[in-house]
Write a structure and sequence with these properties.
Strand content: 15-25%
CATH topology of the largest domain: D-amino Acid Aminotransferase, Chain A, domain 1
CATH class of the largest domain: Alpha Beta
Radius of gyration: 21 Å
Mean pLDDT: 90
Number of strands: 15
Low-confidence stretches: 1-21
Number of domains: 3
Structural class: alpha/beta
CATH architecture of the largest domain: 2-Layer Sandwich
CATH superfamily of the largest domain: ATP-grasp fold, B domain
Length: 408
């Protein structure tokens, strides 16, 4: 059994840890969807008590591997409400816990209140300024250009007049993309809006501006969703990557603009090289995920986004052999661990319901037959929500349409 001194060999903070269970400090997860559920399952499997602070409808609250912390959100201020709970007396019983972010809102809470949180919880090493730059889509693309990482074309406009001034330079289809995705999703329920002409652009821009959300205008890279790929690593105190992992997307739903519903692990050194150029330019530390899309017009990989946290496909990464949740937790508490060196390529993560909807959309377009879809799914699959030993999150997710119907 590890002692409190043994567990914290790095000077992350000076919080004394109370022995619980196997002597491991608990973990608190901030926000997240499928990623929070995966992190909870991984840490619980390693003997860690897991708590979650999240939105009321989060599926992680139904997991047998997680204890739910009810934190009322005051005046729709998620970040402020979470911060008040963590820094207030209600969380005194959790002092010494490891605090992990599974959402952009969680990253903001930890970055803005880091000094105060360090006196109560154990935090991973990070570069707050770098995290802020990759949270903001505009500064992410600006840093990428400095690093020589290809990006889609983009334009900045802060008023309708500036949009009008850009009229001749713009191309369509065009994305109206928020600088801070989580704020846009909270308000509009999507990550961006696709517009196909100037009138549609002006109407969308005005609606988003009225909501007080800053955006940028970006060209839509053509081609299928299977051109999307991403890289994962952890950057230590010197900015050195401690492992390398890549995967690609097979399908998304809605097609061309939704979240991924089918992934597969692979190894793509080109993706890794470009991602590390961006991470080095920004100065990221800790977890990093960089997503690209190959542009069929010139064959270049072009940046889509960068995340400094666990992502929705974390269960695929873990199932392939890289348990990122335990890796980060062990670094924070100072537990010895084996390096992450090899993972299984060709492993798949499948969301059956959403992927079937993607198939129907692709079939209507004449791009995928039923036999083609069937052949693509006849493989051993990993599931983000379903687990035989922890079925309730998946059951709650499947029953959501029925619950919404009865609520209406």
């Amino acid at each position: 059994m590890l002692s409190a001194t043994d567990e914290c060999t790095r000077p992350i903070n000076s919080v004394p840890v109370t022995e619980r269970g196997a002597g491991l400090p608990p973990a608190i997860l901030l926000g997240g969807g499928a990623n929070a559920l995966s992190v909870a399952r991984c840490l619980a499997g390693a003997g860690v008590s897991v708590y979650a602070i999240n939105e009321p409808e989060a599926y992680v609250r139904y997991s047998r591997h997680c204890q739910w912390l009810s934190v009322p959100v005051v005046e729709q201020d998620i970040e402020g409400s979470w911060a008040r709970y963590l820094l207030g007396p209600e969380s005194d019983h959790l002092q010494g816990a490891v605090l992990l972010s599974c959402s952009d809102a969680g990253i903001q809470v930890i970055a803005r209140h880091r000094e105060a949180l360090e006196h109560r919880f154990r935090l991973d090493d990070s570069n707050r300024e770098a995290q802020g730059r990759v949270l903001d889509k505009l500064t992410t693309y600006q840093e990428a250009r400095i690093a020589g990482v290809p990006t889609p074309r983009f334009w900045v406009a802060e008023s309708s007049e500036q949009v009008v001034a850009l009229r001749e330079a713009l191309v369509y289809p065009l994305l109206v993309k928020p600088r801070l995705s989580h704020l846009f999703e909270e308000r509009f329920g999507k990550k961006f809006v696709v517009v196909n002409d100037f009138d549609e652009l002006l109407a969308t821009f005005d609606a988003v501006s009225e909501a007080g959300i800053e955006t940028l205008l970006m060209e839509l890279i053509p081609g299928g969703d299977d051109l999307l790929c991403s890289y994962y690593t952890y950057l230590d105190e010197q900015g050195q990557p401690l492992f390398h992992f890549t995967k690609r997307i097979i399908r998304r739903f809605p097609v061309g603009m939704g979240t991924a519903c089918y992934h597969i692990t692979d190894w793509n050194p080109e993706v890794a090289k470009l991602a590390l150029k961006l991470c080095g330019q920004v100065g990221l530390r800790g977890l990093a995920n960089v997503e690209f899309k190959r542009d069929p017009r010139d064959g270049q990989l072009k940046l889509i986004e960068c995340n400094a946290r666990f992502t929705a496909s974390n269960c695929l990464v873990a199932g392939s052999g890289f348990d990122l949740a335990s890796f980060v937790y062990n670094r924070i508490v100072g537990r010895p661990q084996q390096p992450l060196e090899k993972y299984h390529q060709g492993m798949r993560l499948w969301d059956p319901i959403r992927d079937f909807e993607a198939f129907l959309e692709l079939r209507r377009r004449g791009e995928l037959s039923f036999l083609g879809w069937l052949r693509s799914i006849l493989h051993f699959q990993t599931f983000a929500y379903f687990q035989w030993t922890d079925p309730l999150p998946a059951l709650m997710r499947i029953s959501k349409p029925l619950r919404n119907l009865f609520a209406r």
